[in-house]
Design a protein that fits this description.
By secondary structure, the chain is of the alpha/beta class. Helix content is 48%, strand content 13%. It has two domains: 158 residues, NAD(P)-binding Rossmann-like Domain (Rossmann fold), CATH 3.40.50; 78 residues, N-(1-d-carboxylethyl)-l-norvaline Dehydrogenase, domain 2, CATH 1.10.1040. Pfam families: 3HCDH, 3HCDH_N.
Length: 301
């Protein structure tokens, strides 16, 4: 699918920015990647492989042509994002739609200094952005409906599944659910109920595989809401409900156990095992998504 007239700019050449550019270039979009750090920019170019030939890389946020869209994908820091989106607005035409790829920061807060906040919205892509289909589309309080419609149409052209939120809440939808799950997982580890390997097995090969085919609400419909209600009545009082991070998580971070990037989190990692896992994950994600899509199409037929 080619979109020869579509022009896009990605600001931030980290992991998400790189996969966003890779996604767009593969769909024939004319894409420019901007990052003030030449080393980060070069790492982005190298990681794209052959696809980098269709991408322009630059350290300067200067628009020689008027892009249809600019996606800010810098670090998840509100002050930095505010500064970058303000710089973007000063560099583009009033017709350009500006998006922030944030995981859950209030859209109005990021765009608080914009002159035209009505053309600004959140588009939360999931890593890896060139594979995972869903994108949370999060309008700010000033975002025009036509801007949301245009953004969704563009995302569909890229093969994405835009899911529009009615209200912007911290963490949006996916991260709220993910953190609720992790709060209970950490609580179970702290209580000694289960070891990390067994917990991962239970989640991955029970509710995990089912949710690849049915969302949680569809799954509850299939199981029966009356059954869910009966379980909820006795289980909810025993679930973790703390309003601060688990002590186990605080301890691990304090010890430098930051996960695969540091060599140890819940598991031990080497550079080789991390790279191998990420490669296998990309390949498996593509197969799972293909199966889930087939399953959906059969359900509609």
């Amino acid at each position: 699918m080619q979109h020869d007239s579509l022009q896009a700019v990605v600001v931030g050449a980290g992991t998400m920015g790189t996969t966003l550019a890779k996604l767009m270039a593969a769909q024939g979009v004319h894409v420019v990647v901007v990052d003030t750090n030449p080393q980060v920019l070069e790492a982005s170019r190298l990681s794209m492989g052959a696809g980098a030939a269709d991408v322009c890389f630059t350290t300067q946020l200067e628009m020689n042509q008027t892009p249809d869209f600019v996606i800010e994908s810098v670090t998840e820091n509100i002050a930095i994002k505010q500064k970058v989106v303000a710089q973007i607005e000063a560099s583009v035409a009033d017709t350009t739609i500006i998006m922030t790829n944030t995981s859950g920061i209030f859209i109005d807060d990021i765009g608080s200094s914009l002159r035209l906040p009505q053309r600004f919205l959140g588009t939360h892509f999931f890593n890896p952005a060139d594979i995972v289909p869903t994108v949370e589309v999060v309008p700010g309080s000033h975002t025009e409906a036509a801007v949301v419609e245009t953004a969704c149409r563009w995302l569909k052209q890229l093969g994405k599944r835009p899911a529009v939120l009615n209200t912007c809440v911290p963490g949006f939808v996916a991260n709220r659910i993910q953190h609720a799950i992790m709060r209970e997982c950490l609580s179970l580890l702290e209580k000694g109920v289960v070891e990390a390997e067994a917990l991962d097995d239970i989640v991955q090969y029970s509710i995990g595989v089912r949710m690849a085919l049915n969302g949680p609400l569809c799954q509850r419909d299939l199981n029966g809401l009356d059954i869910h209600l009966n379980i909820a009545r006795y289980l909810y009082p025993d679930l973790d409900s703390r309003d601060e991070p688990a002590a186990l998580l605080e301890d691990y971070v304090a010890q430098g156990r930051l996960g695969a990037k540091a060599g140890r989190g819940f598991y031990r990692w080497s550079q080789e095992s991390r790279a191998q896992h990420q490669t296998q994950e990309r390949e498996s994600l593509q197969r799972i998504i293909a199966i889930a899509t087939q399953h959906e199409q059969k359900g509609e037929s």
